[in-house]
Amino acid sequence: MNIEIRHLRAFQMVADELNFRKAAERLRVAQPALTRTIKDLEGMMEVQLFERSTRTVTITNAGKIFRHAVEDLLPSLANAVVLARQAEKGVVGELRIGYNDFAMYGLLPVIVRRFRAAYPQVSIWLGQFPSPEMVKQVAQGRLDAAFHLGPAANTEVDSNLIRSERLVAVVPDTHRLAERGAIPLSELTLEDFVMGRHDTWGAFHQLILSYCRDNGFEMNIIQESLNSDGIINLVAAGLGVTLYVESDWLYTTRGVAVVRLDQPGPRIETLVSWRKKGLPQHRTLQNFLEVAEEVLASEG
Hints:
By secondary structure, the chain is of the alpha/beta class. It has helices at residues 5-17, 20-27, 31-45, 61-89, 101-104, 108-118, 131-139, 202-214, 228-236, 248-251, 283-299, and strands at residues 50-52, 57-59, 93-99, 122-128, 145-149, 157-165, 167-172, 182-183, 192-196, 220-225, 242-245, 256-261, 268-275. The longest helix has 29 residues, at 61-89.
């Protein structure tokens, strides 16, 4: 069975007019061609849709049932065409975006808010994953884009730098170092540390552990937390100190002090990555990345 839209439109017009001549005029086709189209449709369906005489055309019971279905189907098809055209322009659809804590406490909320204002018919799903897992999911097409700790280290993805931030020490506001403007990292040698959980903050863990080892000591990690709020609140509670990216929100958080480090440490880079192969056909993602670039230019 190979029923086409032209068969359905022809049927609908004859059902409306119950007159082949008038239906043909409205469709701007020859009456014999319209008659053949209806006969072809009835042959494919193996159903008689109309009863014809030399003077009248009546619709059969089967035709009445089919008409109700066609009346629902044709508008749906037209709407599907509109949606497909909008999707090609990137104004409807869905995006699956991965993120880490640094992105969520950085520019990602601004990017998402601005994108949703510009493209309200695009739904956005946000999920938090470890950085290496996000890059893998982007390469596999399971995520459209991801905001993660650099580098991407995958030949299947492209990336743009979102932010490059320096490390600072965060200590309780009653700590002996709280009033210091800057300190050498060695001042933290004997401190207890609070960090993010190793299973979800693994890439950041490795950077910080290596940084401390390069400066002659092993971190004594006594407490781990799932997210940034938990880490900083544990510091505020006096359970230890931490190393974190310098962020505006830290300076307004009660119970902690931000202390800069004398010697330059590793820059903490947040990247946005996407799958190379998918981008040319994914206009919605292109629009999202364009908004990200605009936000970065204005607020980065």
